[in-house]
Target: Low specificity L-threonine aldolase
Amino acid sequence: MLYFQCDYLEGAHEQVLRRLVETNREKLVGYGEDVYCQSAREKIRAACGAPQADVFFLVGGTQTNAVVIDSMLAPYEGVISARTGHINMHEAGAIEFTGHKVLSVDHCEGKIDARTLENTLEAFWQDESHEHMVFPGMVYISFPTEYGTLYTLRELTALAETCRRYHIPLYADGARLGYGLVSPRCDVTLEDIARLCDVFYIGGTKVGALCGEAVVFPRGDAPRYFLTRVKRHGAMLAKGRLAGVQFDALFTDGLYWRISRHAMDMALRMREGLEKLGYPLFLDSPTNQQFVVLENGQMERLREKVGFSVWEKADARHTVVRFATSWATEPEDVDALLALLAEEKR
Amino acid sequence: MLYFQCDYLEGAHEQVLRRLVETNREKLVGYGEDVYCQSAREKIRAACGAPQADVFFLVGGTQTNAVVIDSMLAPYEGVISARTGHINMHEAGAIEFTGHKVLSVDHCEGKIDARTLENTLEAFWQDESHEHMVFPGMVYISFPTEYGTLYTLRELTALAETCRRYHIPLYADGARLGYGLVSPRCDVTLEDIARLCDVFYIGGTKVGALCGEAVVFPRGDAPRYFLTRVKRHGAMLAKGRLAGVQFDALFTDGLYWRISRHAMDMALRMREGLEKLGYPLFLDSPTNQQFVVLENGQMERLREKVGFSVWEKADARHTVVRFATSWATEPEDVDALLALLAEEKR
Amino acid sequence: MLYFQCDYLEGAHEQVLRRLVETNREKLVGYGEDVYCQSAREKIRAACGAPQADVFFLVGGTQTNAVVIDSMLAPYEGVISARTGHINMHEAGAIEFTGHKVLSVDHCEGKIDARTLENTLEAFWQDESHEHMVFPGMVYISFPTEYGTLYTLRELTALAETCRRYHIPLYADGARLGYGLVSPRCDVTLEDIARLCDVFYIGGTKVGALCGEAVVFPRGDAPRYFLTRVKRHGAMLAKGRLAGVQFDALFTDGLYWRISRHAMDMALRMREGLEKLGYPLFLDSPTNQQFVVLENGQMERLREKVGFSVWEKADARHTVVRFATSWATEPEDVDALLALLAEEKR
Amino acid sequence: MLYFQCDYLEGAHEQVLRRLVETNREKLVGYGEDVYCQSAREKIRAACGAPQADVFFLVGGTQTNAVVIDSMLAPYEGVISARTGHINMHEAGAIEFTGHKVLSVDHCEGKIDARTLENTLEAFWQDESHEHMVFPGMVYISFPTEYGTLYTLRELTALAETCRRYHIPLYADGARLGYGLVSPRCDVTLEDIARLCDVFYIGGTKVGALCGEAVVFPRGDAPRYFLTRVKRHGAMLAKGRLAGVQFDALFTDGLYWRISRHAMDMALRMREGLEKLGYPLFLDSPTNQQFVVLENGQMERLREKVGFSVWEKADARHTVVRFATSWATEPEDVDALLALLAEEKR
Model:
């Protein structure tokens, strides 16, 4: 069986795991105050070019989105998201659970256009009855998006400028941040993210860790008593070291980037193969998720030997499926997948 | 100045007010247990052809929507609404405040098509990852809709059947129920509503009362301890008599229908005049709200003498505005409006 | 039958009702922007000696408490209340519904002592793990309390000073404010309330109105976009005039105080009678609620002819019951109650 | 420096960690559906004598309490807890965040007495106005309690019987369950817990795991769509293996009990030493937390060499402090602590 259904099929990268083992018996205080959390914070600040950043570690992505968004919105505000955004579609209403509306807007391959955002914001403020409506209080994007696509530096800058004009923060969900930033087609850097976003998170769960996401407020302006807010959400990790040691390892000697690049190489290898075999790509994803249109019969046959995600119906006879690579993907597995797909074409 | 901006510009219909005065010094128990609430309940049950119905009185529309929807959804469920639905657009996030997502779907002139609903529900249940999504737990419609349009009996039946097939309740927001049911183009009766919906409310605030909406669970299956849920929402009226006396009056000798018909007559008078004057209607509304496309200059001039609602931009040079009639609209005022509009055409 | 079970058994005071009738057909904008709301605001500001106060009208007491408290607390904060406070005992969890804890503290006849408050606040801030606890963010008192007792000016000043030292607001629930301020044993004025509290409400429902409570932020620092917060709670009154006209009437020519004094007179008449008859008072209430200890057999016999509230068990054979007077209580009814109680003693 | 401030100072027990390493590269599905989660579930079911139990893995204790309590309460219900209960004091309002009130009751050394519970429940149902109050919908206890104390089998049975008589579930917070069940003074077994409680959790974080708590519904009646509820709370672990592998290891060959017994041995060693040295114990704790009364000067001197928790003031000159042992406590460290305390006595 081959496994491409997602990018969190394995445990942690060996170097991460080794550090957990090495530090295991050290007696460390809880709740993120230990030396590894401190060290990880410093490394992340350096990597972001944001020496004054506030950095917090949480366990998972949905949790992080809920905590961050709930903490930054006023009660009467909602968060703008692409209709396809993870918070709007696949978080079981975790944002609404905190009492806030997700204000969905149109998207282009998962991305929000600065023009769309501008129009939305302008329309709100010009509406006579806007006091009866949810105020747009924040913009949520993902980098890369649900569709594996990337904002260009120009697009991201335009979004950030629009947000600033309307005095609302821009938040980037970086569950797969590594896989986006190392793409050969990416012209955005981590420093750019830190400069243009008001808050973002660096995904660990999908990029080499057992669990963990690092929330970064690059300007050091985290909402007051953030830890208490985290606790109230049930999101406080007692043994904060679990996240701290892992992120410390990931941000030592560029491990995070090295393993991200591996996933990217595997995705490119897959993509080239798919194109060579003539499989139509659903869209042009420059990152570790590749979306392919399969004929339904092909899909059913493949299912017996390969794990993948069913994305959406293309038409009555075709389906879009997703193959994901990760830091742990072996080239042999990519080749085996391509061989199976080649058979289908024969 | 003429006033057509909404249908809640006056106090209560005189017969309603008179009953408040006549009963004022009676000593009555609170919280909806008094004789007038009981009497109003009986009259509403009779009008609905639902002798076993549970009937509760609340103060306003947004409150009613929040209490009813929150009470009928499981925590992991959301409510399906047309994108233009009041709960999705104009209730300041009152539904999300209760922790539930509004699952917006496409609409046609404010209405949800049974086919759209079916597709939405089917897609949810077929999605591999639906356990990570908000469950569609209820359908919200308004009758008439935000656009003044009406579901036909056939459309409403199709929606109800779809809901039943998926075991989710159908809820009708009847803020303007009277103005819908008396429309000459309406083939739905109150009994139909009670038969096809699992819960609905009969609007008082816009149809002759100072305040008050009557929530009806036609099959007598209101969520357990409904009053406590109401209290928890801060929605309990201490002097329940205020709603009880008013609804008792409205449902005595057909007052509710008589005053609804007056609003309808005024709307038809307005509509005929608008058509005669050649003003394009934005859509074909058969109820008390009429949507007209005005040239922006016309609109600005009119604004000085007439109150109306700005609905949306039609194009760069035109705007859709709404004129609403009510039980209190005088024919002279309609004629004066038409005269002003006639001047514009000269 | 005699009725002393509560102070909201009748409709509105006749002068209030008359104003509703007189203004009924005036065309007024909604949501509290009409001329009567404006006028009522001005009169309330004048009565409070707080010309810059923000004043909002809501429908009921639990609703008001939930909206005000939720609006003034940070997410990580709770509200301090006497264990017996209305928000802690009799609001069906409406505060917790908004996500905030009620931090209950010991009380003395319904009142919080400044020393108790000081200790609570100091203990919180000195606790090593206070970041894992709910922050005390506000103090809730009622004036008069649930037990009909009153804070003296000195007590209220001490509470206010403690709150200021800890930078948290003091909020007074004035559901029966009138009945407290007119008590011959009250040395606090409305101006004092406005000077010492950061927010409070003037109760209408129990003091002459059909419904309605006036929230006052005496320093004009209401939370931003308060109306949207109100709407989100489902607490917005479409026909704001309903509250505006009533409060305008109540604060014209001292009506509010006049009718409050009547309730007070009736309570004193009752109290004197009770004492003369030798009925033990549960506590020394200087306001319109009188708490009497009845032998259980007496209570059961009385129940057939008099409405009252069962407060709590005194011991196995006695029960504390409450008799409430109001603006609408007739002296004949008090005398009839006393006659029935006299019979019991024979 | 010596460390006794809590029982989560180290990483995971070596056998647990080894299994994480051994299984690290296995490709496993997420969200708790992998083979290790399945295996751990079976072992837990066997240990509980509850073959049909539903078992779920969550990350931390506050999170588990919030998810379980919110899932089992109706909206109008609250949870009964000892005033000193973790959910009432040290979870930053995480229960209230879900909209539910914690109904605190008196306790005895952290325990709720069945009689107190009975009285509370009876008083609620007999109260005339209970529809205006939060319904008691569940009982929360911890085993052992915050004070390290244990319910006897008889006490637990009495609580369970009271709960059943009132048709409300009994929930045991087992953050330190192992440390309670292995106490020589404990006459309750895991099977008893499973038989008497409707839901409970087996703590991992404090008993050998990096993180993780196992929620057990012994009768297999977990709330519907529990995983979606977990996700909505932001509590879903993407790599469910992290909890599964750990609990599988903990419940293999009695590891959980073995390491619990070690902590117990260390606590007894400490306790004997404390008694021998004449230090007064604050209460008679039979588990891994020992509460000692220190003179304030002693406490300050000790602080420089030993980590401990400041529990509460005993009087003006004395303070209660807590020393906790765990699976990782070394006998040498206990002896070193005792030596320091002996010095204080010289």
Summary: The first helix of chain D runs from residue 14 to 22. The longest strand of chain D covers residues 135-142. The CA atoms of residues 6 and 324 of chain D lie 5 Å apart.
